[in-house]
Amino acid sequence: MSSAAMKLAVVAALISAAAVGARACLDVGFYDTTCPTAETLIQQVVAAAFRNDSGVAPAMIRMHFHDCFVRGCDGSVLIDTVPGSTTRAEKDAAPNNPSLRFFDVIDRAKSAVEAACPGVVSCADVVAFMARDGVVLSGGLGYQVPAGRRDGRTSLEDDALNFLPPPTSTAADLVANFTAKNLTAEDMVVLSGAHTIGVSHCDSFTNRIYNFPNTTDGIDPSLSKAYAFLLKGICPPNSNQTFPTTTTFMDILTPTKFDNRYYVGLTNNLGLFQSDAALLTDAALKATVNSFVRSEATFRLKFARAMIKMGQIGVLSGTQGEIRLNCRVVNPVNVTATAADDHHLTSSSSSSSDEVAAS
Ligand code: HEM
Ligand SMILES: *[C@@H]1O[C@H](CO)[C@@H](O)[C@H](O)[C@H]1NC(C)=O
Ligand SMILES: *[C@@H]1O[C@H](CO)[C@@H](O)[C@H](O)[C@H]1NC(C)=O
Ligand SMILES: *[C@@H]1O[C@H](CO)[C@@H](O)[C@H](O)[C@H]1NC(C)=O
Ligand SMILES: *[C@@H]1O[C@H](CO)[C@@H](O)[C@H](O)[C@H]1NC(C)=O
Ligand SMILES: *[C@@H]1O[C@H](CO)[C@@H](O)[C@H](O)[C@H]1NC(C)=O
Ligand SMILES: *[C@@H]1O[C@H](CO)[C@@H](O)[C@H](O)[C@H]1NC(C)=O
């Protein structure tokens, strides 16, 4: 990946800290002295997984989004529901389960950095690095990831339901939901461009192809009829029950390439979700869409900038939160020598925080 290194150098020059704002206390090169191999080790795990299944790239990009929009980028999306608990964790909420995938690849990346530098690299940062690696492996522009996030200790299904916008969202809803996270309407349009790679399950869009309200053919008028018939072939009625694991690519023009074809498809009524088509229903949003149709370079650069910005939402830093040892489980209240041995880890003591209210 020497070309990736080159891209990183280029973007480092283009994206200055000032350009993306100095709000959160995160730093590029945060692990340079404490774990200098962290980013390389993580990249190797993502690259190996990507060679086997390129779907790991979109999966990590979406993972970062769903982490950041719920309690901030604090790794809370990775925490498993505690067995026997009556409250489920974020990852078991409908917007995440079963669609979030490759948690096992995150575990492998975390294990690699724990083996090299125990108790140093947060799960939230691992996800941020993996998302960037997914962008680069799919052909997007590389960027340097400000790091130093700490991990939260709370993960609640209801938070995911309350903060992750559904695919039926209108333009006004989407703008409001992103503004609530300090992201602009333009950030929302450019980040939706992540739908240039990856897949969707049928139940995210079957309402657009069967029984859409106020139509005679049941098809959302903002969706291409030809595409609707193709989708009906993939997703029969009630497919959420009969074929719950069926998926389809979101960008049918170039499904695995991180390019601007998502926007080209969008302007040809090939956006898969109502939330995609919604980007054409508002003049300002549509102007942004059209600018990305015209210039792939503009999209690539603005996407990288917006990912850096999204990666700063509600972060914990300094002594807040903890460095979770196993991304699926919050640390025991005291990380004792015994507990560390159980994990085959020797922890440099984690902070003794109570539950954090990140927001
Ligand atoms: C604007 C509001 C958004 C809505 C309503 C939305 C909705 C969705 C839905 C419904 C899916 C398919 C899930 C499934 O059924 O399997 C999906 C997939 C995906 N989304 Fe979004 N999304 C939004 C924004 C974003 C953002 C900001 C990003 C990242 C920057 C993103 C990245 C992805 C990726 C990469 C996938 C494919 C995941 C995979 O292949 O595993 N989305 N999105
Ligand atoms: C390769 O990808 C397939 C499909 O995602 C998965 O089932 C399998 O575990 C992967 N193998 C490795 C070695 O990652
Ligand atoms: C998105 O914004 C709309 C409009 O303010 C609001 O009704 C909705 O609850 C928000 N949804 C999420 C998931 O943030
Ligand atoms: C699944 O299909 C049933 C029957 O058509 C429907 O009532 C339900 O709302 C669907 N669920 C989702 C998540 O689309
Ligand atoms: C369908 O028509 C009704 C009555 O005119 C209206 O209230 C509703 O918003 C329409 N639904 C859609 C999805 O256009
Ligand atoms: C948004 O910015 C305001 C002002 O800088 C800050 O107080 C707030 O915590 C930020 N919200 C998020 C979700 O990052
Ligand atoms: C945590 O530390 C305190 C004080 O060192 C000790 O009394 C307590 O037993 C420890 N709890 C656990 C679960 O190890």
Automatic annotation (TrEMBL):
GO molecular function (one): lactoperoxidase activity
Function description: Removal of H(2)O(2), oxidation of toxic reductants, biosynthesis and degradation of lignin, suberization, auxin catabolism, response to environmental stresses such as wounding, pathogen attack and oxidative stress.
Cofactor(s) in the UniProt record: heme b; Ca(2+)
Protein name: Peroxidase
Keyword Iron-sulfur in annotation: no
Binding note for cofactor: Binds 1 heme b (iron(II)-protoporphyrin IX) group per subunit.
Positions of heme b binding: H195
Family of the protein in this entry: Belongs to the peroxidase family. Classical plant (class III) peroxidase subfamily.
UniProt cross-references to CDD domains, sorted A to Z: secretory_peroxidase
Binding site for Ca(2+) 2: T196, D251, T254, D259
The keyword Secreted is assigned to this record: yes
Signal peptide location: 1-24
Primary location group: secreted
